[in-house]
Write a structure and sequence with these properties.
The protein is α+β, with helices and mostly antiparallel strands. The protein is built from 6 helices and 12 strands. Strand 5 and strand 6 form a beta hairpin.
Amino acid sequence: MFTKTQNNQDPPIFYFSFERGKLKDKTYTLQIDICEDPLCSCRNITIEFYNDNSFKEILSNITLDINENKILDRTDYNPKHKISGEIGNHLTDKDWYELLSIHDEYKSMICEYSDYSELSTDFPFYEIEKESELILYEDIIPFGIQIIIKIQDKHYKIVDLYCLNTKCHCNDAHLFFYQIIENNKPVDHDLYVEYNYKNEKWKIKEQNIETIDYSIFMNQLNESYDIKNIFTNRHNNLKKLYKNYRRRFIKENLLVQSKDINRNDPCPCGSGKKYKKCCM
């Protein structure tokens, strides 16, 4: 069974207690390591087991896939404490859920405060530049803070998309409101709002239930979150990532076809800027 310190200690200390078997009544102090790559979508964590809070001697470690609820790797370092062989039979659904919560809470903090200016990931280049396809934030940064509001005893998850077209200079977050029905899985959206985070104005683009005053949704969202800063930062994070990807994409693809391009020529990405001021 997992437990953690309940005081204001930061970060908290985690423990695991065996309630049966060969290690019954044994309690171990844990060191939980979580991937710090904000762009990584895995839910793998590594847990190290220690005798006490001094963390001097590691007894065992295990690597878990929290998505699949399975053990990926295990190692015992002390023959008197064969923890890795016992732990699989002792992890309950509650334990797996606790680990999931620990992972997602920590990873969301990493995602919100990372510097994306030096990171890069893949984007659909032609769809963005030629079709102005909107990009879903959680498709790129999978563990950002979940934005959820409550309206009339119903919970709604807000999913945000953004335009990254280099010719577009909009300040819009495209917000889709999904009612969470069961198992925290959203169904079809009830509302689509275009929110300009610069002037803090919004307009309804689509609504699927005519009987609700949808201004309640935006008012509740604004009261619950600092939406101006959240959506500004999220759009900027995606812009930084896409800028790095676009540079790489052009060097690896388009410049092969444009070997004689000069600094002052139009950039082959189609932004309209000079190459030296864009993707050089």
